[in-house]
Amino acid sequence: MKTKLGILTLILFFGQISAQKVIASDSIVRRMMNAVRTDKSIKIDGIIDEEAWATASIANQFIEFQPANGKPESENQKSIVRVLYDDTGIYIGATLYDNEPDKIAKQLTERDVINNDDFFGVFVNGYNDKQQSYEFIVTAAGVQFDAKATNDNGEDETWNGIWYSAVKITDEGWNVEMKIPYFELRFPKDNIQKWGVNFFRNIQRQRKKIAWNHIDNTKGSSTLYDGILNGIENVRTPTRLSFTPYFSTYVNNFDGKTEMNVNGGMDLKYGINDAFTFDMTLVPDFGQANFDNSILNLTPFEQQFSEQRSFFMEGTELFSKGDMFYSRRVGGSPSVYPNVSENETMTDYPGKVKLFNAFKISGRTKKGLGIGIFNGVTEKMEATIQDNMTGQTRKETVEPWTNYNVLVFDQRFGGNSSITLVNTSTMRMGNFRDANATGLLWNIANKKNTYNYYGNLKGSWVKENGTTFGARGSIGLGKFSGNHRFEVNANAVDKNWDINDLGFSTLTNYGNHNAWYGYRILQPKGKLNNMYLNFNLNYYHRLEPFLNQKLIFNNNNSFTNKKFQSFGGGVEFTPYGEKDIYEPRIFGKHLNVPGYFDSWLFFESDSRKKLQYNVSIDYYAYDQKGRNQVIPSLYLRYRASDKLNLIWKFNPVFSNNEVGFAGRDGNQIYMGRRQRNTYENSVTGQYTFNNKMALSLAFRHYFSDVTYKQFYSLENDGSLNENTIYNPNLAGTYNSWNVDLRYSWWFAPGSQLTLLYRNATSNYLEVSRMRFKNNFNELFDTPMINNISLRITYFLDYNRIKNWF
Asked: How confident is the prediction for the chain on average, in pLDDT?
């Protein structure tokens, strides 16, 4: 209590000195400042010399929130911010003093990337509801970063706005000028505006973060701690309509055949009103999306890939609620495999379904109601099948015309609470599978933002030869503030739960009960800047028929010292082993897995240094002779200059005597004891010419081989009996090779030219334990994809187009 009163008194004292008003709301002190209208032109050049800036009120006397929470900014690194506005947008001028300007960190990166940089940013919330803010950041190198910040999802970095900024390094520090057009903000149609706003600054060499309105890092999210911006009057949002046409051309060479194609299309964005935005992609082209990190997957579950397509990445914070929408389903793999007789061969099977078009509507009203609508349509896809006797071919539909829909209603209230309804549906033409899923979610925080109560109820309906209903639910309570924190929750998922037509789900037919306790130090103390200690207890059981699965204890700890080096480790063990109900891949069966003791250590060096290295080691010891798993990792990053940055990652995995699914004959399941070694090397590098132009390299080679030593029959009690008759050749070696060399040029706001060279191949061989040289010879004997593509996108604002005419 004394600490809180002390900080409050300090802020009030500062507020009186700087002529800034403060108000208290829900125990959070909120500073106030006024924006001043200007009729004079402001040149965005980083030089704050226009007369209008002298008339603006100031925001100053910032307060540190990391690492020393609540400490006033130092006098030799003070910050002064001014705000102006006109009929087109708001202007922000920041004078950021630094007594050692030659030490200002200013590494050049691509847009939306911050590395070793000082930076300045602003949070803007036009509805002043503490629910969602727009975040605009510029680094000392002049690189822009923008995001949407929400209480529950944090930063959505995929959102890209059109705004203007410039920086200038001076003898006293550095300056920032910004212009944020109104069409990138959301605010009510009121004559007198009252916005939530906060300014913040990062001083990289000291890893110090400070803010104008103090952000208490011990509880809540940063959007709860904004101040208030008054003074903006009689402004109107312009027509929010923009077009981003694209042109792309590709030259592909594979197995001696060269093809060329040309594409064109457009993205459209329209502001329906002050709160909601309509986004649409017409004739989409995702040929330059990043490659997927494919692996040799021996688990019973499909591999989940991250979204790489920009349309599905931007502005999706509402659609991610409840984890019921997996956008890779739209335009993913076909849903069925064709029927092929013994006398037929499939000569062509489409790897991907073509997206015809997609749109989304999203936004949030001034009363806190968020609404999200998504619709996507994919085209009919067919496989080609040839008759081996006659040579005739036929077509079979493997994916019909399909309509995907997502609907979200998210009501936020009380600063940090919400109730959400989510519905997804997949409708396929003809006698193909349809699906629907609905979820009700809640997350209720108390007024002090120290405790929350949360849970969900979800149902899935799949229509395929009848209708199947599945359900899942959870409930929990947690304390998420202060040094001592805890959480308890329970989850249940029945055997019919299935959202995989438009979502992603793996584990079913289980109940889970979890208890977590965490202790943390968020203020520098002794030799540490922070400390996190976490203890978890998890119990799992099968629902139908009931079966105790496993009990897991976990302890993980991390520390950061005054040199900003992070280190830690932990242990995890299953004292009674596990009854794995998924590896047998048949309902009602399970595999007895011996208990394990897992321990790990990690160390991360200071990221401010030219050379950064992170190392870790993870070791699983099973209660079975000769069975273990070793997972080391190495990360090296070398910053040769402010323009050149290189990263190497090496992630091997050595698994000895693991047991996994080998085959099935009716109800008889066979398991295999195997040795598996995996090596993953990746190199990324970037040379950034300036804050608008960069050349980047991404390379990944993944290699995994598996050797089976013994086969077993799985018994009904989960035990294994050695089987000398079942002896298939399941040895395998999988390689995946990808190289991307990309040149990017942001030649105008929202407009980009990208030239990409791509080299890729992969192979699977039914042998293992090959020599490294022989493995590479086999890999490079496999036909490789060589692709060169050029893509140009150009941003067109309706208001600018209108002025042309």
From this structure: 91
Residue 12: pLDDT above 50? no
Q: How far apart are CA 326 and CA 330, in angstroms?
A: 8
Q: How far apart are CA 182 and CA 271, in angstroms?
A: 12
Q: Stretch 678-692: mean pLDDT, rounded? A: 96
155: number of Cβ within 10 Å:
16
Rounded distance, CA 185 to CA 123, Å?
11
Q: How many CB atoms lie within 10 A of CB 664?
A: 13
Confidence band of 13 (pLDDT split at 50, 70, 90): very low
Q: Which of 782, 744, 746, 749 is nearest to 764 (CA)?
A: 782
Beta carbons within 8 Å of 50's beta carbon, 6+ residues apart: 40, 41, 42, 43
Between CA 570 and CA 596 the distance in angstroms is 14
Burial of 392 (0-12, 13-18, 19+ CB in 10 A): exposed
Encoded tokens for 267: 């993205």
Peptide bond preceding 594 in cis form (omega within 30 of 0): no
Nearest to 279 by CA among 243, 322, 309: 243
35 in Cβ contact with 84 (< 8 Å): yes
Q: How confident is the model at residue 707 (pLDDT cuts 50, 70, 90)?
A: very high
Separation between Cα atoms, residue 792 and residue 754, nearest integer Å = 6
Q: What is the mean pLDDT of the segment spanning 703-731? A: 95
3-state secondary structure 19-55: CCEEEEECCEEEEEEECEECCCCCCCCCCCCCHHHHH
Higher pLDDT: 667 or 408? It is 408
In whole angstroms, give the CA distance from residue 31 to residue 229.
Answer: 9
Label each residue of 379-443 as H, E or C: CCEEEEEEECCCCCEEEEEEECCEEEEEEEEEEEECCCEEEEEEEEEEEECCCCCEEEEEEEEEE
Distance of alpha carbon 560 from alpha carbon 67, whole angstroms? 10
User: E strands, 255-380, where?
Assistant: 257-271, 276-282, 344-348, 355-364, 369-378
pLDDT of residue 351: 86
Q: CB-side exposure of 765: number of CA atoms within 13 Å?
A: 19
Task: State how far the alpha carbon of 440 is from the alpha carbons of 150, 366, 418, 501, in Å.
Answer: 19, 22, 11, 19
Tell me the DSSP string of 758-790. EEEEEEEES--S--HHHHHHHHHHS--EEEEEE
Q: Give residue 23's pLDDT.
A: 55
Please provide residue 102's backbone torsions phi and psi, each rounded to the nearest 5 degrees: -70, -10
Q: β-strands 36-37, 79-85: how paired?
A: parallel
At 396-431, the pLDDT tens digits run: 999 999 999 999 999 988 778 899 999 999 999 999
User: Token pair of 114, please?
Assistant: 């911050």
Of 146-160, 205-219, 283-297, 585-599, minimum mean pLDDT range = 146-160
Nearest CA to 282 out of 340, 333, 358, 349 is that of 358
Identify the bridge partners of residue 72 per DSSP, sorted by sequence position: 63
Hey, is 714 helix, strand or coil?
strand
